[in-house]
Amino acid sequence: MPMYDYQCSHCDTTFTELHGSDVFLKDCPACEHATLERQFPRGIKAVTDREYFRGKGTLADQFAGQERELEFCVANAQRQGYRPSIHDIYDPGLALCKGDKDGFISPTGGRAQVKRRVAELTAEGPIPKAVKLAPDIIESIRRDRIAENPDLAHVNQRELRESIVDKHGNPDIEE
What pTM value is reported for the model? Predict the structure, then answer.
């Protein structure tokens, strides 16, 4: 996953976030205004741990006012054998599920811990395996479409099924 630099046009907070290219952050974590702008790289820049984690806050800051959410995440990490510190940072982008122990970054782990986790995620997944759309699912969608638009009952049903596979399935998978 790539790292993106953001700057808030309201309070001038800058920070770096690790996420997929299809994600665009809008709300500033510091002032909570929807005034974030993704910054374009201006060449290679050395980012310290302090710069990288600026604006993220510790668990207490991240879950302020959401104590039940914090308790859930901490309990889930403890079930996996990790005891989060109040100084940890939780990054849901590194977690496979809410409260995943690998989503917690310790104060001593820093960017190195994030890089290791990203390497694990890209090496082992989680990339879903492409599968052929099941005939019963195609039929269910076809029936739903006809129920919504009865005129579809009079079109070529093979073409209707093909359009469903084109939209919802993976037509490149061989049978």
Answer: 0.45
